[in-house]
Every structure is written in C-alpha cells, then in structure tokens.
C-alpha cells in the first residue's frame, strides 16, 4: 500500500512536536517497504534544509573518530603490504624463480598475520574448592571441587562443553543454539535451564539432576535418550550400562554450589567420600557395618575437623588425623583421616 | 563547491578531498568527518531520539564511507552519497527501535480508544515518559507480570508457570495495571476539562 508521506508531519516529528497519531503514521512510513524511495526523498528534503543550530553547541564525537582511525590503521598495514608485494610480483613475472620466492615470502609474512586461532578454553576448579564460571554466551555456574570444563573458541556458534567432575549450570536461553554438556558416558542437551551434572572420573555413575526447565540426556553411543523434567535425576551406571530416572528434591543435589554440604540419609561411605572430595582429604574407613550407616546433616563453612567431629556425635566412630607428610619432591601429601568403629570399652 | 578550512592552513576543495579519499588518504577522511559529522549526528538524533544511537549512526556511516573509499565516484555530490548511507542506517535503527518499543505505543493506543486527547495531543514524548513513570510506580510483582505480558509478549500461561502463580492471578494483575493506567491518564483529561470550564466562566 503506497501511502502519501506528509513532509510537515515528518519534520514536526523530528522536532519533537508530534502526537500518538503522528507517531503511528511515521512508524508505518518507515516500516513500509513499498514507499522507500518516497520516504527517502522526503527525508532528503529535510536533510537539505537541515542546518545545525549553532546555539546548541557541538557534540564531542572524538571517540567515534578515534575508533574509526583505529580501524583504518589496522587495515592499512595489511593492505599496503599486500599491494607492495603484488606490484613487485607483476614486475618480476618474467623471471621464473623470483615469483616463487616472493610468493613464499608473501604467504609466510602476510598470511601469518591473520592466523586462524583455534584453541580451547579450560576452567579448572582445584580440589577442595568450588569455582564460579561464566561462559561467553552468558551461561554461568559452579564447578565443584576437583572438576574441570573445556570449550572451544567457536563456542558461540555451537555451544558444547566437555565436563570432567561436577558442575551446576544456569544456561542462557537460545532456541537456535542448544547447549550441550559432554561427559565420558553421556551428553546433556538443553535450551535454557538450570541443572547439575556429576561425572566424576573415579565414579561408576554419572548423574544429571534437573532444577528448572528441560533437558535431554543422550548416551554417548546413542543407546538411549531421556527427557527430564524438574526435580528428576538421571543416573547412568557405566558398569551395568543402564540408567534410571528418579524423582528427587533437586535442591539437595545443588546445595553444594552455595557452599552447603548436604547429606540426606546417605550411607556413611558415601558421606565420607563426599567429605573427602569436598575438603580434599583422604578418608580411610574399612568397617563395612559402619559404611552402611545412614547419615543426615547439612554443613556450611565448617572445617573438615569440625565436620568429622559432628559426624561422630551421632555415628559411633573414632577418628585420627594423620600428620601431613611431605613427598619426595617437597610437596605435601593430602591429609589423611582414619575412621574406626568406636570401641565400647 | 565546498571549501573545508583546516588547521594547518591548507585549503582543499571538497573535490580534492574526495580524490584524496579515493586513494586512501586518512587526512581527507578526517577532514570530511569534521565537515559532516555534526550535521549527521544532529539529524540522526532528531529521528532516533537517542544520543547513543545517533553516535552509532555517525560511526556506521563513516565506517561504510571508508570501507568503500576506493569506489568513490568524482561526479556524485558527497553530501548526497553520505545521505544515502545515512538514510539506510537511520531507517534500520528506527525500525528496530519501533519493534522493541511497540508495546508502549500499543498500550497508549488502547488507552486512547477511550480517551481521545491521548491520540491528538502533540506531546507524544511526554505521554511516553508519563507511561514509563507510571509503570515504574507499580508494585514490583505487578510490574513484572505486566512487562512480561506486554513487553516480552509472554503468554499468561508462561508467566504463571515461570512465577509459580495461577493464570487467574496473572490476568487479575494485568487488569489492575491497566485500570491504574487508565485512571491516571483520565485524571489529566478531567483536570484539563475543569480548567477549560473555569476559563469559560
């Protein structure tokens, strides 16, 4: 639909004198692809008439100019060099060897000025610490103790993360670019949501817990695909090569990111394994009866000594902290805690 | 013929500057920037109503001029050439802005259906500022629901789910918000009418 463009209304719009009705009209004129030429001509009329009101003062555009100059400068060196080589090349065309030599110089010096940088970024959370991370697309999260994640610099084109250990993710929503977490046994595919993945190298199971949103879990060899809803946990056992989905309270599995160590009726063996990982200490406990003891507690900001002491209040254990030994190369070994069943005597 | 005056006391005609620019003269580029950037800035500002966007236009236009400097023709008027690039950039920016701010116009249009002064009073910018202030005054939760629906275009269901409330609550909140806005905008009209009748005697 070709609409008549009113110069006066347009001009008044530019001067700030316009009503809602005028604004709707002007917006339509700009949007309409059919009357582009007419709009351009009308606005050009305005441009030709437009004179700067000198009383208003000048706007400082030096920053804009500087940015432009930088751009120009960065292009110039490359272009000049290229022109010089090309000119030289055409002059020396008659001589056979020289062009070859020049080309190799050209490709060594010129092309290497703009190499394709291909590399990966790795984020590591040291043992005993939790690390917060932020990815180029705005996704953020926490890496648990002794875990690492890796992604390529092409991440913004294809959102793929490699995870070893445990991390909680809050993924930025992007329908066109699904976010994929790749672990040794499985991949978690997601569009925009909050979830936890635990894929420790020293564990037989890989676990995915969904807090909010939707994820799709896929076996690495394409053997299965599972969709999770919030408060569901998927556990894959790599020995049994089988997986199960359970309903859980997601909060329990992600509390670690807020610095909370939460145990809900877990066998003591699990408890001590997690404590060991959290504090980066080695816990030795051989008693099978003790190992099965169910334990429940929440710890926050405690030192490991305190945690063990608190456990001993409700579980019949005795413990000793071994002195920190020094290795051959002067590095301290991990602290060891030995746990025994409490003797009644 | 436009003569641009320079700091180092050398005069170049615009034609000469164009020629220099064509062969990659940064000096010529800067002179032309000095000549036209202010006008371009103010012109863009008048249509886009935003200093940041007007600056972006200046950047985009001159960047384009530089990028195509080798294909500059002697015959074209530089101002015309610059204007063509500017027009396309301004249009693109304007349309993007319209898209993002469409919800405000829609709300005003709805209010205008029952309050004709909103439609014809020549101070649209005042209306918009007033609308934004009123939205800001709303209690946090109502504001959030309102913007999610009107600005982000989320469905009542989506909002209800993401905020853990019932769809009915969402609808009620939006209705309340619209009532509030209508009342506030009607206030002006009434006071305007009272003033008018007082004036008449």
Keywords:
heterodimer; A: Jelly Rolls; 13-stranded mixed β-sheet; 31% strand; B: 201 residues; Rna Polymerase Sigma Factor, Chain: A; Arc Repressor Mutant, subunit A; 9 helices; 2% strand
Question: Explain this structure to me?
Answer:
The complex is a heterodimer of chains A (345) and B (201). Chain A is α+β, with helices and mostly antiparallel strands. Chain A has 4 domains: 7-53, no CATH class; 62-113, no CATH class; 120-254, Jelly Rolls (Sandwich); 260-341, Phage tail protein beta-alpha-beta fold (3-Layer(bab) Sandwich). Chain A has helices spanning 7-14, 20-31, 36-49, 62-91, 97-109, 250-254, 268-279, 288-292, 304-314; strands spanning 120-125, 131-134, 140-143, 147-152, 159-170, 179-182, 186-190, 194-199, 205-212, 215-219, 225-228, 232-237, 242-247, 260-267, 281-285, 294-300, 317-321, 335-341. In chain A, strands 1, 2, 3, 4, 5, 6, 7, 8, 9, 10, 11, 12 and 13 form a 13-stranded mixed β-sheet that branches. A 3-stranded mixed β-sheet of chain A has the order 15-18-17. The relative contact order of chain A is 0.06. In chain B, 78% of the residues lie in helices and 2% in strands. Chain B has helices spanning 14-22, 26-48, 51-67, 78-112, 116-120, 124-137, 140-150, 156-163, 167-200, and strands at 3-4, 12-13. A two-stranded antiparallel sheet of chain B has the order 1-2. In chain B, helix 7 (140-150) packs across helix 9 (167-200) and helix 8 crosses helix 9. At the A-B interface, helix 1, helix 2, helix 3 and helix 4 of A face helix 2, helix 3, helix 4, helix 5 and helix 6 of B.
Short description:
The complex is a heterodimer of chains A (345) and B (201). Chain A has 345 residues and is of the alpha+beta class.
């Amino acid at each position: 639909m070709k609409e008549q463009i009113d110069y006066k209304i347009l001009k008044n719009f530019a001067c700030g004198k316009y009503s809602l009705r005028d604004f709707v009209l002007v917006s339509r004129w700009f949007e309409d692809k059919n009357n582009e030429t007419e709009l351009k001509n009308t606005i050009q009329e305005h441009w030709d008439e437009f004179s700067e009101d000198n009383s208003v003062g000048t706007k400082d555009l030096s920053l804009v100019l500087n940015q432009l100059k930088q751009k120009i400068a960065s292009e110039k060196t490359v272009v000049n060099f290229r022109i010089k080589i090309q000119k030289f090349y055409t002059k020396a065309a008659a001589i056979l060897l020289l062009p070859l030599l020049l080309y190799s110089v050209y490709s060594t010096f010129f092309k290497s000025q703009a190499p394709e940088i291909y590399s990966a970024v790795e984020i590591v959370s040291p043992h005993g610490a939790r690390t917060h991370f932020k990815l180029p697309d705005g996704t953020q999260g926490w890496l648990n103790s002794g875990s690492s994640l890796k992604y390529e610099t092409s991440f913004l084109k294809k959102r793929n993360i490699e995870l070893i250990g445990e991390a909680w993710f809050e993924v930025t929503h992007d329908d066109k670019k699904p976010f994929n977490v790749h672990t040794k046994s499985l991949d978690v595919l997601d569009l925009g949501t909050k979830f936890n993945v635990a894929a420790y190298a020293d564990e037989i199971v890989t676990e995915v817990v969904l807090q909010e949103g939707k994820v799709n879990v896929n076996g690495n060899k394409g053997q299965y695909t599972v969709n999770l809803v919030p408060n569901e946990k998927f556990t894959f056992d790599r020995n049994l090569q089988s997986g199960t989905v359970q309903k859980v309270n997601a909060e329990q599995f992600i509390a670690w990111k807020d610095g909370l160590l939460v145990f809900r009726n877990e066998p003591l063996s699990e408890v001590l394994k997690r404590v060991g990982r959290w504090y980066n200490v080695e816990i030795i406990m051989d008693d099978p009866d003790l190992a099965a003891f169910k334990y429940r507690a929440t710890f926050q900001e405690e030192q490991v000594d305190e945690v063990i002491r608190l456990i001993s209040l409700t579980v019949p254990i005795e413990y000793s902290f071994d002195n920190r030994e020094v290795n051959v190369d002067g590095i301290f070994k991990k602290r060891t805690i030995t746990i025994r069943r409490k003797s009644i005597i | 013929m436009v003569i641009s005056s320079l700091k180092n006391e050398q005069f170049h005609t615009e034609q000469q500057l164009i020629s220099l620019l064509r062969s990659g003269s940064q000096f010529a580029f800067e002179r032309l920037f000095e000549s036209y950037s202010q006008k371009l800035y103010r012109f863009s500002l008048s249509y886009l109503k935003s200093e940041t966007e007007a600056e972006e236009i200046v950047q985009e236009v001159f960047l384009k001029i530089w990028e195509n400097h080798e294909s500059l023709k002697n015959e074209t008027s530089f101002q015309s050439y610059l204007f063509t690039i500017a027009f396309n950039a301004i249009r693109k920016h304007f349309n993007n802005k319209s898209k993002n701010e469409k919800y405000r116009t829609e709300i005003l249009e709805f209010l205008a259906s029952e309050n004709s002064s909103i439609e014809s009073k020549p101070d649209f910018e005042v209306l918009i500022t007033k609308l934004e202030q009123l939205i800001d005054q709303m209690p946090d939760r109502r504001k959030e629901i309102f913007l999610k629906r009107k600005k982000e275009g989320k469905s009542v269901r989506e909002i209800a789910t993401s905020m853990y409330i019932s769809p009915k609550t969402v609808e009620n909140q939006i209705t309340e918000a619209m009532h509030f806005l209508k009342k506030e905008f009607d206030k002006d009209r009434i006071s305007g009418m009272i003033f008018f009748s007082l004036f008449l005697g």
